[in-house]
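Progress narrative, work stream C.
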Amino acid sequence: MKKVKSKNLVVIIGNGFDRAHGLNTSYNDFSDYYLNEVIFNKIINFNDKSEFFHIKHKERLIKPEYIRYQISEGIAEERKLDKFIFNSKEKNKKLIIEYLINHKHMLKHIISNVFLAKLYSNSYANWFEIEQAYFTELKYILNGKREGLLKKLNIDFQEIKNAFKDYLGSKIKPEEKTGFFNSFKEHFKKRKQIAIVNFNYTKTIDLYNYRLNFKNYHIHGDINSEIIFGYGDDTDETYNEMKKTKNIEYLRFFKTFDYLKTTNYRSTLNAIEIFNEYDVLVIGHSLDTTDKTILRTILDNDKCNYIELLKRPDLETEKEKEEAHFELHANLSRIFNSEKDLREKVISFEWSVNFPFLDDQEYTNFINREKELYKQPSKTSVRVINR
């Protein structure tokens, strides 16, 4: 059944929006930067007194007598690595980097951040989805009754959080891109109130605010404030088991508690609460369970009429875009309590469009789709009486 296009629009912005601007803001981008410009530099300058290295290993590295081993098939890889590092003049830097790229599991012998070393050694299904990996590690500790590891895990996670924020603040410089403004303008037509629920820490969306009338809510903070960085599904059964242990270290980086530290979460909810109804536009967000709690509040809501998932213009074929949509639909099924509601609210892939529009034909298709999708408001006839 067709619905009248709502005057209110909620726009969910995720990292894909930054990526579409050519910004290296993914966890994978950060991991490459951190490995190449931080870890490698500290390895090369191993006399640095930083706590980055295990102390016992640092002492071994700086003792020439420790390197008096012949490199052969029978020598442990760790000793080979020691020799590379000990001879780490600038001419050997490429050799060290190449070795560690091919043997990332060796980082556990060098860096003191155990969690980061596991991320680099592909210990998780999606190796640099940091927030999901962190929750996996919490479950490992809970199931194995290894609570002695909790505090160290949280120290390691805080270190990564700080490094990621510094990376975004110092290395990422957003610039307005052609086509984005025009696409926003078309999607915003006939809307009176627009609320941007921004999951990014960057200020990219602000590039368009001077010409568009919307309110931007940084639900997770931004690079100029404390950022929320952790896990966000407090409906998981394991979460309840963690609460029952009464060990607060399990809850240290759950977004539920981070939301209570600032007004961002409440401001976002208040902005949506005033709407009697609304449509939702999703741009570049994976709809993953790391943000399940807040996403359910917005999407699985009686006030929400339609949910539009925009296509990724970086994918070349419609088959690839359809597969990307399928992943989003699968993630939505984990957020919604009723799949009937999911089917009724989500606009079909066939009617979805790229963001930004790729050409004039797509713009025309969008205009035609609007007529098919939305019920046109009835016009009140006016009777004129001649006197």
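Work stream C, second folded protein:
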Amino acid sequence: MTFGANHYVPILKVKQGEKAALASVAHALVPQITPLLEIVERTDGKPIDKHIDTAFKGLPHAVSSYSRCFIDTAAIAADGTSATREVFSRGKAAGMVFTPITGVTRTVDVAPALEYTDHGIGLRLTRAEFESGQLPTAIPSFLGMHGLSSSDVDLIVDLGAVEEMVVDGIAALTGAFLADVPNHQGWRTLTVSASAFPVSMGGVDRHSQELVERADWLAWRDHLHSIRHSLVRLPTYSDYGIQHPLGVEGFDFRFMQVSAAIRYTKEEHWLLVKGESTRSVLPSTQFPQLATRLVYGHLQEHFAGPAHCLGCQAIKAAADGADGYGSAGAWRKLGTIHHLAAVMDGLQNLAWP
């Protein structure tokens, strides 16, 4: 179950909208996608077993069409090794084909990950590890300590949040990071991930829209893929979908204002369309209005059309007055479906090999 550089590894939070999106991706695209699923941080005071119950609600179905997925439990490290072990145990019991993720400087999830290596093991290298200078020794040390061969390992070089960097800067950071990784050819898979998605919608004025450059994608496309013939190995592209890596865990909707917004992926930008506070106007009223702007209004030049994907089909249905599209969760689903399809469009439009 290896994959090459014409593949895609979206990093997605294990939340309702993202799970529903994965289940709605066009069948033709599924073989080219291996999702990396992050169990989200426990911030609501629920017992950890209930938190894991929520994560697994609908999850096995969501990934049942994919050849495998990655599962990362780093966000629940505070809940201890037993929580991570429980996640992996439930995944196996549910028949999920998954590869557990750990890291060379992690502690809590290393042992549980090594217990569930039926489909290999993933190492996720962080920007902090790179910037500390420890990777050239930490990587071989980790492999040796645990009796692993690089051919058993899916390696993810994760730059994390890069929303404040320009494309050339992201490309330079990627090159320097990769230079610290030994034996590029030896890993089962080699992936580079980053996220240029803004940390919040605060930069968009109410009742307006902004185009935000997909700098992570442009850095991979124009600075890695473009020189693929001179590379020992072209890493697979990965991003964080339409969510900043920090997510919205800990956001208390009882006290913090949120505005209705659409996140819509284009070839080189995200179109961010913002309404106003959902305390002022109900989301069930606002989201169809925003959809109408995109499908029929002054933003229609950005709309890919209802035939593009199930997400776009539903966006048009919302603009046409269909029920069921009046919540942020529903629009996270639609935006994620469209994003996954748009990324695959970009990959398929490139020259290969």
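Residues 42 and 76 are 7 Å apart (CA to CA). No further action is required on this item.
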